[in-house]
Amino acid sequence: MSAVHIPLGPVTEVLMVSRLNPYLSFNGDARQALEFYQEVFGGTLSLNTYGDFGHADAPNADKIMHGMLETPGGFTLMGADNPPGMESAPGQPFSVSLSGDDDAELSGYWEKLSEGGSVSVPLEKQMWGDVFGMCTDRFGVPWMVNITESES
């Protein structure tokens, strides 16, 4: 997450900003794809598997639940393997991700984006601790909203 540092004399306040970026969906090869994109763009890649989040014995434990590549050029690319039972629609292996720690701002975006569309995952607290939801807006664009808890 990018941050803005505001000098306040001997104290520096760090403000988190909201981020909008593509989120790619894969049918089992997210690790290979994200490692390839790291080779192409450089940067830092972080990968979390389904096993990392308490599903160590599940058949998909080694599959990617969330991956994020942050590049020196300022690009952010996120992606994951589809969970079991969730098929990827041909020609639409992406979502647009909104993330940050401004609850009011991001919840407001969620309300507007989901109005007249369909909600596949309600915006609520998830097992990794963030508030998260997935919807498709009235124009057919899939969105993911993730609100992290502010560090006070």
Descriptive keywords:
single chain; 152 residues; alpha+beta; 8-stranded mixed sheet; two-stranded antiparallel sheet; 2 helices; 10 strands; 43% strand; disordered N terminus; Glyas_Fos-R_dOase_dom; Glyas_Bleomycin-R_OHBP_Dase; PhnB protein
| Mean pLDDT across every amino acid position | 84
Strand content: 35-45%
* Largest sheet properties: 8 strands, mixed
H/E order of the elements?
EEEHEEEEHEEE
Report the strand count: 10
Major beta sheet, strand line-up: 4-5-6-3-7-10-9-8
The oligomeric state is single chain
Secondary-structure-derived class: alpha+beta
- Secondary structure: helix percent: 10-25%
Gyration radius, in Å: 16 Å
Q: What distance separates the N and C termini?
A: 16 Å
Number of helices, counting only DSSP H or I runs of 4 residues or more: 2
- What general outline do the C-alpha atoms trace? globular
Low-pLDDT runs: 1-7
